[in-house]
Specification:
Shape: elongated
Oligomer: single chain
């Protein structure tokens, strides 16, 4: 800012010089002299077009035609740094004759200011780069100690463009009206400005002490108020700009984040309900240390009905800033109520639960995850997520490149505890996933909150690993994949009497007053494409056992499950009646049907198998009887003994071989005896 002030002073002095030369030199010659002197002072070319006109009344002054200041040589923009339709300067004649520069008025009509920062950090408004390094250039800009006053400096109908190629931000302000008052060079000053940013009004009110020190970038007492749309920032304390440093009280009321984001060249969206949709406020002691780091101590943050207290540190990064915070909250509620009505609630109660026709399809905006990285330690006595309620909770929340990880260090819920992590990934779309262990949780309130289903009453453990992709709850549920396992202890399944169905072969044992009491339930499952499959469900009850297998459409909210209950008839669990129970249809209106056809089919298949076994056994018995008869005849008629491990053919072959041998022996003996 000190160079901007110096340039303003240089312009005023040069215009006064032009006024003094008007009497003896033509206006075009004056413009050339002024341009030459300005370039010598700043290293930039100044062009003054049109006639330079003096004024003697009501105050001594000069009005120029169109004025422009050249941009830096390295600038990528082809626009000048400054351009105005005219420049008007009024001075105090008495003070001027006494050697003091007292500017009564300095005004520019419809100026265009084009600011630019290069990728390597150079600023086009830094005129020092255009001057000799030893500062000996002819007509060098007067040092800040050169006193002057300014009753009123004004910009009317101006535009400001700032292209920060280092960070990629672009700031655009239109219809800029500004008033700067410096009644005493070493005393207080005030700047008041209004403009339009993205069509919305912004306003700045800056006041401070010791302008001479502030113009050099030094820290002085200041008070700042900034309004952008419906958002307002206030600061009171001490601050300077070269480098940017401050220490004091900050108060921020931010109901309109998009407007504030446009002002600073960032894309900010309105937070979701519970995260600051209707109320977003911050206060505390702010410290900017001059290196780009910011510290907010004794901070109080309010987001809708939620309040948090603690300390926050914001440090610059290569791609984005990083926030570190230690926060302690009161009860946190993110229960937005957006899932209510008939649009497909995500949970129970007003959300519609099992009775809803589908999942919410509202687009989930997580663009805020890309604004900064973060590492936040959070402690809260309770957390209401809308579809899940937690008790005392300690969590570490980390955000890196639009990916947030919630690491549950401690989370009590539903009489048990939850450990693991939950991930929200906003890189190139939205995906959610995690690995969670739920130990000792009460199933009735858990499933009532998750899906509005309160008929399973038990306590148990659940292991879950999942991943879902999509920009809405509906899309995520339809894409879910993963795996898990559930183990429950004693409990009851309300609204369904399985034993009654088996006893009467009547599927009507459904509804209020019906229940199945069990001693345990366990199973594993897999998820793919929003469909949960299970093939090993086991249920053990006092009077029955059951095995289950089937599919649950998590995305489409459908059921296609087959339960095979067996009513026990003996103490050892054998016998009894088994009737498959089919559970099909949408969650909202499931259908229960006893699969009597399969019983008949299975009975026929069993009878056919038994008949085949009987025929096989009869054939084997007949074969054994025939073999025994043949052995008897071989023994009685031929004298052949069949060993237990020998075959009839082998025994007959051995008997025939022995008979031949005996016959050959007798023939040989007769021949030898005859000789």
């Amino acid at each position: 800012m000190r160079w901007i002030v110096r340039v303003g002073v240089a312009l005023a002095i040069l215009v006064l010089l032009a006024f003094g030369l008007l009497a003896i030199v033509p206006s075009d010659r004056i413009a050339q002299v002024v341009s030459t002197q300005f370039e010598a002072m700043t290293g930039r070319k100044l062009e003054v077009a049109g006639e330079i006109r003096p004024r003697l009344w009501p105050s001594l002054g000069v009005t120029t035609g169109p004025v422009s200041i050249a941009n830096a040589e390295w600038a990528e923009s082809d626009q000048p740094l400054f351009r105005a339709e005219n420049l008007s300067v009024d001075v105090n004649l008495g003070a001027l004759l006494g050697g003091e520069v007292k500017i009564l008025g300095l005004a520019a009509d419809r100026p265009e200011i084009n600011l630019e920062r290069s990728r390597d950090g150079k600023a086009n408004w830094d005129f020092a780069a255009g001057l000799p390094s030893d500062g000996t250039g002819v007509g060098a800009v007067p040092p800040p100690a050169t006193g002057f006053t300014l009753d009123e400096g004004a910009i009317r109908g101006g535009t400001i463009r700032f292209d920060d190629r280092q960070s990629g931000r672009r700031i655009a302000l239109d219809e800029v009206d500004a008033r700067l008052s410096i009644p005493d060079f070493s005393g207080p000053f005030r700047l008041a400005a209004t403009a339009l940013s993205g069509g919305q009004k912004v306003a700045l009110d800056l006041s401070g002490d010791v302008f001479s020190a502030f113009a050099m970038g030094r820290v002085v007492p200041i008070k700042v108020s900034l309004t952008a749309g419906g958002s307002k920032l206030g600061f009171e304390g001490r601050g300077g700009y070269a480098p940017l440093a401050a220490e004091g009280a900050l108060v921020a009321d931010l109901p309109d984040l998009p407007a504030l984001g446009r002002l600073f060249g960032a894309s900010l969206s309105r937070p979701s309900p519970g995260l600051g949709h209707d109320r977003l406020q911050a206060s505390g002691q702010l410290t900017l240390d001059g290196s780009g780091r910011a510290f907010l101590r004794q901070a109080t943050l309010a987001a809708d009905a939620n309040e948090l207290k603690g300390d926050l540190d914001l440090t610059p990064g290569e791609a984005r800033p990083k926030l570190k915070a230690q926060l302690t909250a009161g009860p946190i509620s993110l229960n937005t109520g957006s899932a209510g009505g008939t649009g497909g609630g995500a949970g129970g109660g007003a959300g519609g639960g099992m009775q809803a026709e589908g999942w919410p399809e509202d687009v989930i905006d997580v663009s805020a995850l890309g604004v900064m990285d973060a590492e936040v330690a959070l402690t809260a006595p309770s957390v209401d997520l809308g579809v899940l309620k937690l008790g005392p909770t300690r969590a570490l929340i980390t955000v890196e490149r639009s990916r947030a990880v919630f690491d549950f260090r401690e989370a009590q819920a539903y009489g048990g505890r939850i450990t693991g992590d939950f991930v929200v990934n906003g890189r190139g779309g939205l995906s959610v996933g995690g690995r969670l262990n739920l130990a000792g949780l009460q199933t009735q309130p858990l499933f009532a909150d998750l899906v509005g289903w309160d008929r399973l009453v038990s306590t148990g453990d659940l292991e879950l690993e999942f991943l879902g992709v999509g920009n809405s709850i509906a899309a995520i549920m339809k894409s879910l994949k993963g795996k898990g396992a559930i183990t429950l202890g004693k409990g009851e399944l309300r609204g369904l009497d399985i034993a009654g169905m088996l006893r009467t072969l009547d599927a009507g044992y459904v509804g209020e007053g019906q229940k199945t009491i069990f001693d345990g339930l366990a199973g594993t499952f897999a998820m793919e494409g929003g469909v949960l499959t299970n093939s090993d469900l086991k249920l053990v009850a006092p009077y029955l056992t059951a095995a289950g297998a089937g599919r649950i459409g998590l995305g489409e909210r459908t059921l296609d499950y087959r339960l095979r209950p067996t009513a026990l008839a003996a103490a050892d669990g054998t016998g009894g009646v088994m009737v498959p129970l089919l559970i099909t249809g949408p969650w909202a209106k499931p259908r229960f049907r006893l699969d009597l056809e399969s019983i008949a089919r299975e009975k026929m298949e069993a009878e056919a198998k038994a008949a085949a076994e009987r025929l096989k056994a009869e054939a084997k018995a007949a074969e054994a009887a025939a073999k025994a008869e043949l052995e008897r005849r071989l023994k009685e008629e031929l004298g052949v003994e069949v060993a237990p491990d020998d075959s009839l053919g082998a025994a007959a072959k051995r008997r025939a071989t022995k008979a031949l041998e005996d016959e050959a022996r007798r023939a040989l003996e007769e021949i030898l005896g005859g000789n």
